[in-house]
């Protein structure tokens, strides 16, 4: 198959669907938005699992959405797909002066710092302005910390971050003891934020780490359900002690 014309083919197919398909005719920026979010999560799942066939398929679905939005943009006289592609090309060239100009950098941190400086010159009022308000809180916290790091707003070593985690934990315990629920929520948020910071310093992606734990919990809990069924029971009929005993058996299986 000749792949060099694949993008042209996709655009042609979408043009036909937009003209002839009742469903495609009705789509707007707002009706596509929730579907796009769903596609991003589906892609994220395949990335976590390193499912290469799945990644290929989900990237295709996401590309379709990009072309679809560009089609709507063209219909409204706002922009075309070519404008989108040219815009990102120009952005990449402009923000990589160490490749396309005479700027010298020593490592990736300097690349990030230059990137933020260039964005400021482009009119960004804050280094945090590019972070979407609707971004999930855990990922947003990580991005906030990564962004502020580029201007030197950063702990000097892991020990300092560890101390901060312990300080925030103590403040949380005190809030719980005092019984002020609003304060408990605020301190819990501080603990999460500090833990995400600590994760960065020990070079762990907190989102990926938590998702690995989620998947492990799901796998183990389903195995507990299976074991209970093998004994002719359901979890509703079992005590916490009995379920915990099965849980420990599952953990022992994992270790083997």
From TrEMBL:
Instruction: Report domain NTP pyrophosphohydrolase MazG-like positions.
Output: 27-99, 163-224
A Pfam family that this protein carries is: MazG
EC number per UniProt: 3.6.1.8
Spell out the reaction equation it catalyses.
ATP + H2O = AMP + diphosphate + H(+)
Q: Does the keyword DNA-binding apply?
A: no
- Show the CDD domains listed in the entry: NTP-PPase_MazG_Cterm, NTP-PPase_MazG_Nterm
- Gene Ontology molecular function: ATP diphosphatase activity
Domain of life of the organism encoding this protein: Bacteria
Q: What class of enzyme is it?
A: hydrolase
List residues traversing the bilayer: none
- Report if keyword Hydrolase is assigned: yes
One annotated GO biological process:
TTP catabolic process
Alphabetically ordered keywords of this record:
Hydrolase
Q: Which family does it belong to?
A: Belongs to the nucleoside triphosphate pyrophosphohydrolase family.
For this protein, the record's NCBIfam families field holds:
mazG, PRK09562.1
Know the name of this protein? Nucleoside triphosphate pyrophosphohydrolase
**The organism of origin for this protein:** Flavipsychrobacter stenotrophus
Q: Lineage of the source organism?
A: Bacteria, Pseudomonadati, Bacteroidota, Chitinophagia, Chitinophagales
